[in-house]
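Subject: complex prediction, re-run

Hi both,

The earlier run crashed halfway through, so I resubmitted it with identical inputs.
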Amino acid sequence: MSMFVKRPGLLSSFQDSGRWGYQHLGVSVTGAMDVQSHEMANLIAGNTDNCATLEITLLGPTLVFTKACCICLAGAQMNARINGRPVPRYRPLIVRPTDTLTFETASEGTRTYLAVHGGFDLPDVMGSQSTYLRAGFGGWQGRALKKDDEIGLRAPLLDDRKPLAALSERIWDQVLYLPSMLGQHTGRKSLVRIIRSDQWPEFTAASRAAMVSGTWRISTDSERMGYRLEGPEITLENAREMISEATSFGSIQVPRGGQPIVLMADRQTSGGYPKIATVASVDLPILAQKKPGDEIRFTLVDVEHAQQLDRAKAQAIDELSVSLASISQWLVAARESAPKNAPENSN
Amino acid sequence: MIDLGDQIDQAVGLRCLTLADHLRQAQVPGVLDIVPSFTAVAIYFEPGPALGANPIARLTSQVQEIIGQIADGAQLTARRIQIPVCYGEKHGPDLEDVAKRTGLSPEQVVQTHHGSICRVYMIGFAPGHPYIGIHDEVFNLPRREVPRTALPAGSLGIANRQSTIYPNVLPGGWHIIGATPLRLFNAKAQQPTLLLPGDEIEFVPINSQRFDNIKAEQLQELGL
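This time it finished cleanly. Structure:
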């Protein structure tokens, strides 16, 4: 085994970019709450495919590695340390057998993503490694980490002291270009862009105005399924029964009490409340990094603008990916399973 | 989201299922999920090279083309699934109550319920949790005022001219008139759900002895 859980933390579960293709069977998409941090952690750890990362919530675990590997942390600042030495976020880092990774309570943001080069050894269930906490399958045994769990690594590095030290130094010296659009969402940013829903005109003028002028507080019962917002009361002009239909990540539903709920990663696949707006995908990571008690505000954008933002973000991810190509190659060559004596730049 | 109606209606529901079926067969690149409900079909997509700079505009025109190709009166090719149900007593604690509310005898409730073929219009709420309809007007019952916190897996509930079956132990506010011994969801199976949207459903009454036998067979198949 390769990663031992000494303390599990508050809620640590494996997530990838989601279990798509089964919503018509009632299966929630799940996946990382903050997809951007998940993607960044993976890329910087030299992963080009969609490996699951460990999503760590508010209070981090204590993990002991029993194999050499390359890790990366992205998302919330939890003052992570390896054997007591601070670990920077958004940097690849070589760890060695017996190294201990610790976290404190998040001082900025809510969710940290731990990626390991080559990925964790988890089964694919319905095409995904995401933990479906509510249904109890996927990820690691369908649940959050517990004390004394031991999770395997798919591609540990060869534990050979000298080459590993050289690789570590080489990676450390590599200048990493982080596009300005990425990794900036865990701090104080609190303005979230939303798109009007089809039902927007059915809400009262006062409700529509309040959506964008009001300050919204994230309530205590907010979790991976949805965020409940406390603020001005939102009401329909004429209350009506809705027929259940499909839901999406970022839909802002308004149940009868008038306090909106933003649907998040573990949302149910269908819902029957009117929807006033949808959070622009590009800003979902801002929301995913908020915790109960934090405050946010909304501003309206149109669909075209939201699509432009998505494109800009995709481009930033591509740029990051290109700048990491050599690190990824070095890591693949340093795997236990890499062919010995192979020329370093062979294709 | 493509809206095809604003009330629960057999014709609208069938149009949603037929459109979802055609969209699925078209295998549009970039599309991640196609989810029919009683009155709409939702399409989930991933922006990327396949859908270009304006994915919503691109998808809209592709969907319109597919809608145009669906012939009038196109039939949905559906599977017919038999679901054994043990009605009443310990498996259907609300059967007597439903009889009172509908003015029928318990026997008439059971007969009306399994007497006609119905259809899965959508699956939602939990993995494999079907919404089956659209039943006789006599079953237009509101849900229970106080939902139960934990219903046994397989419980069959009715409300609002629909039936549902709880695939796992779940909370629920529907009137429980029976239960099926069949397993509705298995994440590890090639086809994880017993039912698919569009399936025709035939409820088959069984006694509690048969219920126990089928249940035992199911567990044996799963090696439990």
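Helices of chain B lie at 10-26, 55-69, 95-102, 106-114, 208-221.

- K.
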